[in-house]
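[INFO] parsing input record for 7-dehydrocholesterol reductase
[DEBUG] input buffer:
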Amino acid sequence: MPMEKTGAMEATRRRTQHSARGKTSEQGDQPAQWGRAWEVEWFSLISVISLLCFAPFIVFYFVMACHQYQCSITQPLFELSRGETTLLSIWARAPSFSWTAAKIYAIWVAFQVFLYMCVPDVIHKFIPAYVGGVQDGARTPAGLINKYEINGLQCWLITHALWFANAYYFYWFPPTIIFDYWIPLMWCANILGYSVSTFAFIKAYWFPTNSEDCKFTGNIFYNYMMGIEFNPRIGKWFDFKLFFNGRPGIVAWTLINLFYMAKQQELYGHITNSMILVNVLQAIYVLDFFWNETWYLKTIDICHDHFGWYLGWGDCVWLPYLYTLQGLYLVYHPVQLSNAHALAVLLLGLVGYYIFRSANYQRDLFRRTDGSCSIWGRKATYIDCSYRSADGGIHHSKLLTSGFWGVSRHFNYTGDLMISLAYCAACGFGHILPYFYIVYMTILLVHRCIRDEHRCSNKYGKDWKRYTDAVPYRLIPGVF
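[DEBUG] output buffer:
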């Protein structure tokens, strides 16, 4: 057995034994670890296996419904129940893998790898308000602080500038090419998603980046889906989490919308206000992500989630294919909204964005000033907390109870849900399909609330109880 694997397994045994004791003398009854589960309950295992089995078919079903049934998600079920079609006939009508699509996808991923690894950020040198370049991440459970090259905004700008240059000047490829190969590209995205997830799984056993930040539950399905390594890397700078979520995933989000808009123009000779709203609102959200990419290093994805199928396949397939359903729907069903409807959607999205951004800004300001700041014209209030990392060190942090964070414990998620609803409402009320996003985001963010609070409860112990007493609601004051 290689030394790296031996070290990883031995570190896991030591940490499991330490966790099983439940408390340390320095911290009383405060748990020693935080992060994803060490042990897998039956409900979690069933959920994991169900997602591994059915999530790829959910993506295929929605895309197929648009391709074969004009975005109706009920019609194929009715036809199947009446015997008018079969699963095999539906599968046979779907475009298959093509080498042209594989070439397109390989060029796309290789280009994003090149931008991520070989083009250091220069934007932060010209825009003082933007934080880019080499930045520190959050402290890992093992007590490490990784460094990241923050250049996502630069990658996004270069990629989209090339799309516009091609569409209006160079004509290297048709501006609708992604839509035209949408399903064949989905097979390519699945190949990459499963490949990177499997590689990360094997890597965690045989050559982990840091064995102290690995978690082995003993259940192969849970380990594969939720990940073993906390921050898998190749070399010093290629970080799996940051690259796969930000580059082929989120950079592609707005680019895919542009391809949809170009296809709508090609088919109907004009672009509807609903398509413009979807493009604008989602572009605001994506640009906010890249403008605040350094802040993303402090979020749950980087700070708590391990890298497995959940992030690897999800970033390659689930995100680009299901987060863009509104634009896909509007290609098949162009909707021209009334001025009142369009204005209402725009206001809902902008107000949601204001809440989302303001809440995150308040938290970031609080962290940067270590609590020495004013929020809503008053001195910030907070709960002092302490926790222990795997290296045995005791650390201190503060939990904000002012501003939006005094209204509810996750009020930024409330703003996020408002933005999500605006995307869906821009598509009118003719079909259910574009509303999948708000249903999914509600489930995701409520689940994240529960996951995050479970971690915080384990991490902070009695201090977390003091915080929840001060801020009793999770999302919606008086409701939840």
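[INFO] The first strand starts at residue 133 and ends at 139.
[INFO] shutting down worker
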